[in-house]
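Changelog excerpt

This revision adds worked examples to the README so contributors can see how folded entries look when concatenated. The first example is reproduced verbatim below.
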Amino acid sequence: MTPTVVMETSKGNIEIELDKEKAPITVANFEKYVKEGFFDGLCFHRVIRGFMIQGGGFTPDGTSQDTGAPIKIESKNGLKNQKGTIAMARTSDPNSATSQFFINTVNNGNLDYPSFDGHGYTVFGKVVAGMDAVMAIEATATHTKMTPYGPMQDWPKETVEITKAYLK
């Protein structure tokens, strides 16, 4: 059975089908965070129109959450950063993904392996219901928010909260 995560947000529900076969490490990591209730109460903290929406790391006041250990990148799995797919956010270190994810709002072939940095970004699932909510989040006006870690660009002016995430 294909695991599906429901993400209830302040802009509507998003259902994400996870690809356990092509991204087993990433899916196991994401499922662990979902089962722990890690995403509940976090927000989408980075929204760039014509690119993606990112969440899974910060509370609405800009405080980051403690995460588990980083996971090994699985960007060579053949899945593409196409509109409606979910992928792991990371730093310049390819093996640095923890809890932050992004949903592509357009086809982002420049993020596919080998991408601009030789590593790509791991796609591990796709939105199967709720693209209207994804697009509503993408349409949210943004600004630079002062957080405990300094200014963060592309932060939604209106809080877009993940009220609950769970396995369907």
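The second example, added in the same revision:
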Amino acid sequence: MGIYTLEQTQKIPASIEQVWDFISSPKNLKDITPPHMGFDIITKNLPEKMYRGMIVGYKVSPVLGIKLTWVTEISQVKDLEYFVDEQRIGPYTLWHHQHFIQKIDGGVLMQDIVNYVPPMGILGDIANAIFIKNQLKTIFDFRTKKVIEIFGDFKS
């Protein structure tokens, strides 16, 4: 059973407050998730901003259109700097997703670090090699494009 890491960075031409307002709002998750994932938030009456200890439930279809329940907890939050979401119920044996933002010249650097363990031991390792890691990369690439649509493309 392997522990895998996906890291992605993106420069965004916006203020740190604008980026934080966007990424810390649970309602924006659906907009930055590919439609083929069938992503729906099932938790009712979510607040505008996340907070430490917040539980968010979703329905997702990561494979073959099969709907799964995924429940995450926002385990850490430091306003205008980072938050961490961790899976409590869902398709992975482990899912720990760190979201960092920092001010840079011309905007914000956003960094994601996801540590995950696929389910089913050695079969999960094989599935990761065949499609899981590629699927995660595709999801984050989609998000990158959506963030560019929302905030514009960063000019170095």
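Reviewer comment on example two: The beta strands are 4-12, 40-41, 55-60, 68-78, 82-89, 94-104, 107-117. Residues 103 and 135 are 29 Å apart (CA to CA).
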